[in-house]
Amino acid sequence: MAIIASNFKTNHTRKSTNEFIQTVNNYLVENKISSEVYVFPTSTSLDTFQTVSNFFVGAQNAYATKNGSFTGEIGTEQLDEFNIKTILIGHSERRHILGETQEEIAKKFNFYKELGYKIIYCIGEPLEVKQQGLEKTLEYIYEQFIGIDTNYENLILAYEPVWAIGTGVTATNEDIINVHGAIKEKISKPLLYGGSVKVNNVREICSLNGVDGALIGTASWIKEDFIQILKNTKDI
């Protein structure tokens, strides 16, 4: 069954996040949907949500610490308050906009791995790498596994070509199949696709060989749209 995840990024408030999660949870209960669903709200919107066992609320980011003097960050002391045990690591916006290095990302990964967190780990390439062909693309992607335990039992991977995130440009089916196929040959973990996934293309993308679901940004922020995405993929 397809794994569907929504990354809120810097969107929604505490109130609208609560409404979103309640609405989605009700849909999952009423329709007996058993596929895994993830939502990653902003850190100010984290709370103790009542959800079914296959619906996970996670943190978009946290520092590799329990607590301490790390201005602007949160650690496990804050996550534990809401029983959050799921985290997104390595998203391209943190790599390319906020300058997180592979070394920092690996440190974070290993910290949360030791605590048994479910980790959705993001990988992907910028346009100038994609234009050099599949071999260079895979070379670039495999460097993002340096310091990462790809055998970790609670690991889900998400391939997000940077040039397709929020641009409206979706990778071709051939692009997705080629990259997913190559990664799956090396790493036998669930592999999601992300990058301009929309209500009207999510079913086709999730049906491709090597695609185990989707990590969705913009198209998932309206609760009715997210529920439609779940409807479109519930039998895959």
UniProtKB/TrEMBL annotation:
<dbReference type="GO" id="GO:0019563">
    <property type="term" value="P:glycerol catabolic process"/>
</dbReference>
<feature type="active site" description="Proton acceptor">
    <location>
        <position position="160"/>
    </location>
</feature>
<comment type="pathway">
    <text>Carbohydrate biosynthesis; gluconeogenesis.</text>
</comment>
<comment type="function">
    <text>Involved in the gluconeogenesis. Catalyzes stereospecifically the conversion of dihydroxyacetone phosphate (DHAP) to D-glyceraldehyde-3-phosphate (G3P).</text>
</comment>
<protein>
    <recommendedName>
        <fullName>Triosephosphate isomerase</fullName>
        <ecNumber>5.3.1.1</ecNumber>
    </recommendedName>
</protein>
<dbReference type="InterPro" id="IPR000652">
    <property type="entry name" value="Triosephosphate_isomerase"/>
</dbReference>
<dbReference type="InterPro" id="IPR022896">
    <property type="entry name" value="TrioseP_Isoase_bac/euk"/>
</dbReference>
<dbReference type="GO" id="GO:0006096">
    <property type="term" value="P:glycolytic process"/>
</dbReference>
<dbReference type="InterPro" id="IPR013785">
    <property type="entry name" value="Aldolase_TIM"/>
</dbReference>
<dbReference type="GO" id="GO:0005829">
    <property type="term" value="C:cytosol"/>
</dbReference>
<dbReference type="InterPro" id="IPR035990">
    <property type="entry name" value="TIM_sf"/>
</dbReference>
<keyword id="KW-0413">Isomerase</keyword>
<feature type="binding site">
    <location>
        <position position="166"/>
    </location>
    <ligand>
        <name>substrate</name>
    </ligand>
</feature>
<dbReference type="Pfam" id="PF00121">
    <property type="entry name" value="TIM"/>
</dbReference>
<dbReference type="GO" id="GO:0004807">
    <property type="term" value="F:triose-phosphate isomerase activity"/>
</dbReference>
<keyword id="KW-0963">Cytoplasm</keyword>
<keyword id="KW-0324">Glycolysis</keyword>
<feature type="binding site">
    <location>
        <begin position="7"/>
        <end position="9"/>
    </location>
    <ligand>
        <name>substrate</name>
    </ligand>
</feature>
<feature type="binding site">
    <location>
        <position position="196"/>
    </location>
    <ligand>
        <name>substrate</name>
    </ligand>
</feature>
<comment type="subunit">
    <text>Homodimer.</text>
</comment>
<comment type="pathway">
    <text>Carbohydrate degradation; glycolysis; D-glyceraldehyde 3-phosphate from glycerone phosphate: step 1/1.</text>
</comment>
<dbReference type="InterPro" id="IPR020861">
    <property type="entry name" value="Triosephosphate_isomerase_AS"/>
</dbReference>
<comment type="similarity">
    <text>Belongs to the triosephosphate isomerase family.</text>
</comment>
<dbReference type="GO" id="GO:0006094">
    <property type="term" value="P:gluconeogenesis"/>
</dbReference>
<feature type="active site" description="Electrophile">
    <location>
        <position position="91"/>
    </location>
</feature>
<keyword id="KW-0312">Gluconeogenesis</keyword>
<dbReference type="GO" id="GO:0046166">
    <property type="term" value="P:glyceraldehyde-3-phosphate biosynthetic process"/>
</dbReference>
